[in-house]
């Protein structure tokens, strides 16, 4: 059972979480696990990261996740020019 409020837009949450994780991209698609486990599970359910339930301190973005991460970073955080 996820602990965030029921009115949270999970699609927006997932997009912004993936974008933020992409800021730590290193070693061929790995990102540091620094988010809430429920959020990490949501990203895994969407197919954007591999199973986060490991002892590793980082997780691998899927090919789609890596592509979308850059897109979401621009969409949610870049200034309009």
Give the overall average pLDDT.
91
Largest sheet: 2 strands, antiparallel
Indicate the percent of residues in helices. 40-55%
Radius of gyration: 12 Å
Question: What is the CA–CA distance across the termini?
Answer: 41 Å
The total of beta strands comes to: 2
Strand order of the largest sheet: 1-2
User: What fraction of the residues are assigned to beta strands by DSSP?
Assistant: 5-15%
Folded structure, characterized:
Helices cover 44% and strands 7% of the residues. The chain is mainly alpha-helical and 81 residues long. The protein has a two-stranded antiparallel sheet. The model has no long low-confidence stretch (mean pLDDT 91).
List the helices and strands and how they pair.
Elements: H1 10-21, E1 30-32, H2 37-45, E2 58-60, H3 63-77
Antiparallel strand pairs: 1-2
Helix pairs in contact: 1-2, 1-3
What keyword list fits this structure?
two-stranded antiparallel sheet, 7% strand
In short:
With 81 residues, the protein is mainly alpha-helical. The protein is 44% helix and 7% strand.
């Amino acid at each position: 059972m996820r602990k965030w409020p029921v009115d949270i837009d999970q699609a927006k949450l997932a997009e912004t979480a993936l974008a933020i994780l992409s800021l730590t991209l290193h070693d061929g698609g790995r990102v540091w696990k620094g988010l809430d486990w429920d959020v990490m599970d949501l990203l895994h359910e969407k197919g954007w990261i591999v199973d986060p339930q490991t002892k590793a301190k980082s997780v691998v973005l899927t090919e789609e996740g890596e592509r979308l991460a850059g897109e979401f970073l621009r969409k949610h955080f870049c200034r309009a020019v």
